Structures are given as C-alpha cells and as structure tokens.
Amino acid sequence: MFATIAAHPAAAAVTLRQRHSLRARHPLCAPVGTAAPRRLMATGRLSLTSALANKTLEGVPAVLPKLSFPILVNSCTGKMGKAVAEAAVSAGLQLVPVSFSAIEVPDGKVDICDREIRIYDPSESEQILPSIINDYPDLIVVDYTVPDAVNANAELYCKMGLPFVMGTTGGDRQLLKKTVQDSNIYAVISPQMGKQVVAFLAAMEIMSEQFPGAFSGYKLEVMESHQATKLDISGTAKAVISCFQKLGVQFDLDEVKQVRDPQEQVALVGVPEEHLSGHAFHMYHLTSPDGTVSFEFQHNVCGRSIYAEGTVDAAMFLYTKIKSGANKKLYNMIDVLREGNMR
C-alpha cells in the first residue's frame, strides 16, 4: 500500500520508478503512477481538508481581510529570503528597505521588486534595529538566515520586542521556544512553511495522537533531498519521524539518508535538473516485521514559492493575533492552517 503526497506529481512518479536502491519493492505493491492512484490521492486530500475543517474551522472567516503592515525579511540576500520578500510585496505588505546578512553584495544593497534593500552586517543589527522599530510601528520580522544564527537572532528579536516568524531550521529548538515564552513576544515558529505540507504534518500528528503504537515493529526508512547548500537535516523530516516514533516505530535521526549530491538527486531521487538549486523531496517507507505489508508517504516540492506564500500567510496571521490581543503568543504553522484564513 502506498500513500503519496507530491507537490510536483511528475517528479514523484519518476522518483518512485528510479529509487530502487532504497529498498526492494514488494510484488504486491501497486505502482503509484497509474490513473487510479491519482484519483485516490485527490480523494484523500479532500478528506484531509474536510477533516481539518470540521475539527477546527467553525465560525472562522474563509479569507483574510486586506492587510498592510511593515515586514523586515532577514536575510534578503538568500534565495529563500528573496522569495519571501517578493511574496510580501505581491501581497501588498510594506517591505522594509533594510536587511542583515554576512554575505557581501555590490554597493551593499539588493533590488527586490524595484525596491532597494540596504544590507547591513549582522553585527550591526542591535544598533540599527531601534531606529527601524521607531520608523516602522507594527513591524514584523521574518527570519531566513542560517541554523547557527537561529537562537541568537531570536534572543535579539525578543530583547527588542519584535514579533517574528522563524522560517530558518536548525538551532536549539527547545531553547528557541523557551526564549519566546520567557519574553512574552508573539512569534510563529515552524520547520515547514508550505501550507499543503503542513496539512500533511497535521494529519500525521492527529494519527500519532489517536493511534499510538499503530506501527509498532515496523521498519522505517527515510530519504530526504535538498539543494546542496542546505546543511542540516530537514526539519520537516524530523517532525514526521517524531510522529512515526509515537506510532511505535524505532528510528534514530542518524539513520536518515540525506541526499545532497546533484548527480544522485537526478538519478536516485528523480529531481528535475532545473530544480537542483531549490527543492525538497521527502520519502518515508514503512515495512511490516514479516515484509508482507508496506506503506510509503512522499511529499516533493520544486522551487520556493510554496514556502514564501506560507511565510507571508504566517506573518499576516501573527499580525492579526497581535492586533486582537490574543493571550497565546507562540504559534506554529498548524495554528496558521487551523485558522482557516489562508490566501
């Protein structure tokens, strides 16, 4: 039995055909690339949406009101940061013309959507941010920097009283959450900003909470592929693995197969060559103790638009929570999804 969730369906079919080296396919397993499984996949997505709606969306408006508030993207020199900045402008938000990055750029600035963004070294952030806060009331920061900077950046935002969306993975996540809770600052922290992938994560969490131990004794294999510049294990993979562990599977993070070599990504994983510099492919394969039953979950993303749009939704969600004076301060993307106000 195979259950596949793919943001890039053609790539998913190639992946499953080519990925023989991960494990031998059981003869009873039906191929995923046929017409019938596609119809089943569509039904599954509708069922998931309906289940989440029935569970959480009572009385919540379907669309966000038109919002406009200042947003500072840290750092705009990275591909993800640039994609978020472009999505923010497209959504009508006020992109603050300042960002911080250790990467040197010509003339110390970058152009995003015909806007000039001045780039400062991170060491200058504590001196520069107070004037930015003064000039841009209601400012929200989006962080897409590097794993090593996660905790220090969060401490700085909290010290400055800046609500933020943490899209950067890595760092000490427990310390990150504690920093926010101790400071009483509003924040959205999530290892995954893609809305549809978050729905899959929500379903996994519901399953692990309601059916603990359902996969006891099963063997889990995990392979994740990202662009070569991604240094850490996928935060999404960690979250899914945590759910499988609650379902009774024994698995350590050092067993994750990380694929970062472009040739292997094309030949083994099935990543389209045009997306080698920006993709996120995840495959989870479960096999019963006697080898007669198998499950496969897969979510493949090419490009960065799914994360950029989700990040902007998270910033809008956070802004509305701040304005409403919500008692809860720390959120994740499942909270954003459950609100039902996705664009």
UniProtKB/TrEMBL annotation:
Residues of the Dihydrodipicolinate reductase N-terminal domain: 71-193
Compartments reported by the entry: Plastid, Chloroplast
Pathway participation: Amino-acid biosynthesis; L-lysine biosynthesis via DAP pathway; (S)-tetrahydrodipicolinate from L-aspartate: step 4/4
Keywords: Amino-acid biosynthesis, Chloroplast, Diaminopimelate biosynthesis, Lysine biosynthesis, NAD, NADP, Oxidoreductase, Plastid, Transit peptide
Coiled-coil intervals: none
Annotated InterPro entries: DapB_C, DapB_N, DHDPR_bac, Dihydrodipicolinate_Rdtase_pln, NAD(P)-bd_dom_sf
BP terms from Gene Ontology: diaminopimelate biosynthetic process; lysine biosynthetic process via diaminopimelate
Superkingdom in the source lineage: Eukaryota
MF term (GO), any: 4-hydroxy-tetrahydrodipicolinate reductase
Ranges for domain Dihydrodipicolinate reductase C-terminal: 197-337
Function description: Catalyzes the conversion of 4-hydroxy-tetrahydrodipicolinate (HTPA) to tetrahydrodipicolinate.
Protein name: 4-hydroxy-tetrahydrodipicolinate reductase
